[in-house]
Design brief:
Helix content: 40-55%
Pfam families: ELFV_dehydrog, ELFV_dehydrog_N
Number of helices: 15
Family: Belongs to the Glu/Leu/Phe/Val dehydrogenases family.
Oligomer: single chain
Shape: globular
Largest sheet: 7 strands, mixed
Distance between the termini: 30 Å
CATH class of the largest domain: Alpha Beta
CATH topology of the largest domain: Rossmann fold
Organism: Cephaloticoccus capnophilus
Order of helices and strands: HHEEEHEHEHHEHEEHEHEHEHEHHHH
CATH architecture of the largest domain: 3-Layer(aba) Sandwich
GO molecular function: glutamate dehydrogenase (NAD+) activity; nucleotide binding
Keywords: NAD, Nucleotide-binding, Oxidoreductase
């Protein structure tokens, strides 16, 4: 394996993990040295200071970032994350993974990611709006419908995308709905966008249960860590569309367990009202770590990155690990899973690609000024996921790769080929 070179600008556990993954994949496909660093490292990064006037009249300064990893195949695409511990290295890693993901599922995008180091729950609605608009204002020179198209991520939502679209549109002088995706329907959002990532996870889980594990979905038990947009929508879809039984759910404060099955719709209503799953009747409490090692058919980490450590990987008792979050399994933990060889993995590049696919559909609809119904969107989504799944399985069989390495090599190779075809600008 070639030497892992880590840029001091982006150095973080997440970026080191992404670089190790890249080097392993590049070695596996004998990627020429002349193209490796150009394919690995981000094209550009932006760091901004965001002074915001608080409701009490004081001023607080926040730090914001945007990393555009690749622009070789089209505008860059990626979410905006509001999280208290966000750093530039984490954003850069997420942008790298997004480049590979877009290439894997056949989208004409490069990868990007952005965000603000802030705890959004500690802001009032008016403070959150001011922060969102200021962040977008600072990015205007670097983004556009043909340059970089943001979307929601952890800590952001449809309303924030609406504020950001309005900020950009006011600067340009007329409405530009295609500047962001994941907007409210009334502002040009797409049917199916809110549930796209979770619905895609559920679709792939059902496909792998049937095709690989030879297990009817209605006989499967599901444990989901993370009950935000992705985890909750995946849980609903698995119950409603596949007939699976969800036995455990968790959020950042802990989780709930009922081996006989949780009423997911009622749990979602409770969570929306209480802001937590704690105290939900009809289930017993369970910690996040304990949830990860429950005996179940399918484990879905749907929260944040790096939760499946080597220690956790050795204790997993699932048959299928479906990575709904970005980078939930560390590089070392992945080696443990490969040695165990008793757990099938749907890697994050494939598993959670539903969100960016439907974001692409939203961008297309905005630019054509036409809109599709929900059934059309989801039918197109599932067809595109199935094509990507088939490509990953073919790569896995052809080269005897792990499923993760198959997905990574497909994505990285496509990005590298685009860079080679364009050449190196003098």
């Amino acid at each position: 394996m070639s030497k892992v070179i880590i840029s001091s600008l982006y150095d973080s556990p997440e970026f080191r993990m992404a670089c190790r993954q890249f080097d392993q994949a590049a070695d596996a496909i004998s990627l020429p040295e002349s193209i490796r660093d150009r394919t690995k490292h981000p094209r550009r990064c932006i760091a901004v200071s965001l002074p915001i006037r608080r409701d009490d009249g004081s001023v607080t300064l926040y730090e914001g970032y945007r990393v555009q990893h690749s622009l070789s195949t089209g505008p860059s695409k990626g979410g905006i994350r509001f999280a208290p511990d966000l750093c530039l290295g984490e954003v850069a890693a997420l942008a790298m993974w997004m480049s590979w993901k877009c290439a894997l599922v056949g989208l004409p995008y490069g990868g990007a990611k952005g965000g603000v180091s802030v705890a959004p729950a500690q802001l009032s609605r008016s403070e959150l709006e001011r922060l969102s608009r200021r962040y977008m204002q600072e990015l205007i020179p670097f983004i556009g419908p043909d340059i970089d198209v943001p979307a929601p991520d952890i800590g952001t939502n449809e309303q924030i995308m609406g504020w950001m679209m309005d900020t950009y549109s006011n600067h340009i002088g007329h409405l530009i709905p295609s500047i962001v995706t994941g907007k409210p329907l009334s502002l040009g959002g797409s049917q199916g966008r809110r549930e796209a990532t979770g619905a895609g996870v559920a679709h792939l889980v059902c496909r792998y249960l049937t095709d690989v594990l030879k297990t009817p979905p209605e006989h499967a038990t599901i444990a989901i860590q993370g009950f935000g947009n992705v985890g909750s929508e995946a849980a609903l879809a698995l119950v409603q569309n596949c007939g699976a039984k969800v036995i455990a759910l968790s959020d950042e404060r802990g989780g709930i367990l009922n081996p006989r099955g949780i009423d997911v719709a009622r749990a979602l209503a409770y969570h929306r009202y209480q802001g937590t799953l704690a105290g939900f009747e009809g289930a017993e409490p369970i910690s996040n770590d304990a949830l990860l090692t429950l005996p179940c058919t399918v484990l879905i980490p749907a929260a944040v990155q790096r939760v499946i450590t080597p220690e956790i990987a050795a204790k997993l008792r699932c048959r299928l690990l479906a990575e709904a979050a970005n980078g939930p399994t560390t590089y070392s933990a992945d080696k443990v899973l490969e040695q165990r060889d008793d757990i099938e993995v749907i890697p994050d590049l494939l598993c959670n690609a539903g969100g960016v696919i439907v974001s692409y559909f939203e961008w297309l609809q905005n630019r054509a000024n036409e809109y599709w119904d929900r059934d059309t969107v989801l039918t197109k989504l599932f067809a595109q996921l199935d094509r990507a799944k088939d490509a990953v399985e073919a790569q896995k069989r052809k080269f005897k790769f792990s499923r993760r390495l198959a997905a990574q090599t497909l994505g990285i190779e496509r990005v590298a080929h685009a860079k080679q075809a364009r050449g190196l600008f003098p």
